[in-house]
Amino acid sequence: MVSKAATLAPLWLLLICGAALTQVMALTVDSPKGRRFICHYTTWSRMRQDDGAYTIEDIPGELCSHVVYNFVGIDEKSFQLTSMEPEYDLGENGFRRFAALKDKYPSLKLMVAVGGWGHGGEKFSKMVEFRDNRRRFVASVVKFLHKYGLDGLEVVWLYPGNYDRGGNINDKDNFFYLIRELAQAFKTAGKEWEVAVQVPADKTRLDAGYQIDALCEAADFIHVIGYDLRGWWNNFADVHSPLKDRQHDEDSFEGLNVQSGVGQWLHNGCPATKIILGVPLFGRSYLLSSPEENALGAPTIGAGAAGELTNEPGYLGYCEICQILPAMTTRWDDVGQCPYAFNSDEWIGYEDERSLKAKIEWAIKNRLAGIYAFSLDLDDYRGRCGKPYPLTRALHAYYEQTKNETLVTWP
After folding, report:
1. Among residues 378, 387, 305, 290, which one has the least CA distance to residue 348?
2. Residue 401 banded pLDDT, cuts 50, 70, 90
3. CB atoms inside a 10 Å sphere around CB 401
4. Cα-Cα-Cα-Cα dihedral sign, residues 235, 237, 239, 244
5. Taking the CB of residue 375, how many other CB atoms lie within 10 A of it?
6. Which residues of 77-91 are buried (b: 16+ CB within 10 A; e: fewer)?
7. In DSSP terms, which residues pair with 195 in a beta bridge?
8. Paired strand residues for 224
9. Residues 173, 192, 147, 221: is their CA dihedral positive or negative?
10. Is 69 helix (H, G, I), strand (E, B) or coil?
11. Tens digit of each residue's pLDDT (9 = 90 or more) over 169-203
12. Radius of gyration over alpha carbons of the chain, in Å?
């Protein structure tokens, strides 16, 4: 005689298996786009002298899944998307030459970034303040993407809600409305356009201007800035993209690192499958107060000398750093997982293939959607220290190995 429990067992198992299958299906659908490696192109790098000039035609599209054109802006009167360098973007056909990369690299995705540090935040703040202003901006974005056949927009508002950047208390809500309205407009257009948002890792910036959970739901991707977390302005020598907290990280510098910065987005409801970690192809340099003090945290008296190509004190591309490293002493931050170098006068914190590998492994372990690198013109693109694009190639290798992984966010 078969017991009643035995006859019910198959039904019980069927229900369990069905529930499990439903959950797995939901998890798999969570991110059908796979992992990505996003490269950034800067228009101002074309102004360098001789073979230092970096042009659209130099972009190694075979190494990237996406390339982002930096930058376009917001017209302060019409609130529409506008060129920041019309003589180049339009006069020299910068936009069309960029779009033409698809002829050479058919699978390459192309995006444009609006904003940036030099653009400031005030124009954003005024644009998002009223719905009609946002409508004009969104309509101009749709028109722009149609015209040039691009694949999406990256919003680089640095930073909403921050008064020192021209923001106000209403930015936090209005920024979310903008991203939601962009996403809705892209869907209505019937295109597979994406809206990405570049965001800080600094908690003090986040609290003032970002509805983390809502913003992550509205945007396709969140690009977390994992660099410029330190600099010569702090008056002590340090790497600017540390992976974790070190012993000397105290007060406002505690938690100001890649792991904690991304963690704030994850812990506040943003799925890992939407997060892209930003890594630098540049270093931050300092003038040491004393030749005898050169460890992490050593006192400094200002920015290091400007480089021949980047021409900005306290800022050096890897293309410049790799050439001066043989004349410097190099060290490794065991916890921050970054290299640094110094001589009697200057100190540089930067990234190399080893440090980028550490960030790649961390991103994979935490199932992030990918990496973005800023920027192509800061790598050793002419191969003055060896094979061209050493850092970009290291990042590309990671992308090739993991691009087809199914990205899953567990509940």
Report:
1. 305
2. confident
3. 12
4. negative
5. 20
6. eebbbbbbbeebbee
7. 153
8. 199, 277
9. positive
10. strand
11. 999 999 999 999 999 999 999 999 999 999 999 99
12. 23
What 3-state class would DSSP assign to 292? coil
pLDDT exceeds cutoff 80 at 231: yes
Q: Which residue has the tokens 């003055």?
A: 384
Question: Model confidence over 236-279: pLDDT tens digits?
Answer: 999 999 999 999 999 999 999 999 999 999 999 999 999 999 99
Residue with tokens 């750093």, as numbered in its chain = 321
* 133 in Cβ contact with 181 (< 8 Å): no
363: DSSP letter: H
Element (H, E) at 260: helix 258-267
pTM for this entry:
0.91
List the structure tokens of 304: 């290091």
User: How does strand 370-374 pair with strand 36-42?
Assistant: parallel
Say which DSSP state 98 is in.
H
Q: What is the rounded distance in angstroms from the CA atom of residue 239 to the CA atom of residue 237?
A: 7
Identify the helix (H) or strand (E) that includes residue 14: helix 4-29
Higher pLDDT: 23 or 136? It is 136
pLDDT at 398: 85
Distance CA 275, CA 13 (A): 37
Torsion of CA 61, 65, 70, 76, to 10 degrees: 140
Query: How far is residue 120's CA from residue 109's CA, in Å, rounded to a whole number?
Result: 27
Transcribe 305-331 into DSSP letters.
PPPTTT-BTTEEEHHHHHHHGGGSEEE
Distance CA 154, CA 57 (A): 22
Find, among 361, 358, 391, 354, the residue nearest to 373 by Cα: 391
Verify cis geometry, omega within 30 degrees of 0, for the bond prior to 159.
Answer: yes
Which tokens go with 330? 């190099």
The H-assigned helical ranges of 101-202 are 101-104, 122-129, 131-148, 171-188
Rounded Cα distance between 203 and 283, Å, is 22
Question: For strand 109-115 and strand 338-342, is the pairing parallel, antiparallel, or unpaired?
Answer: unpaired
Asked if 179 and 219 count as a contact pair (C-beta separation under 8 A), the reply is: yes
Burial class (CB in 10 A: 0-12, 13-18, 19+), 301: exposed
Q: At what angle do helices 131-148 and 171-188 cross, to 10 degrees?
A: 40
Report the distance separating Cα 344 and Cα 287, nearest Å: 9
Which tokens hold the place of 270? 């943003």
pLDDT > 80? residue 22: no
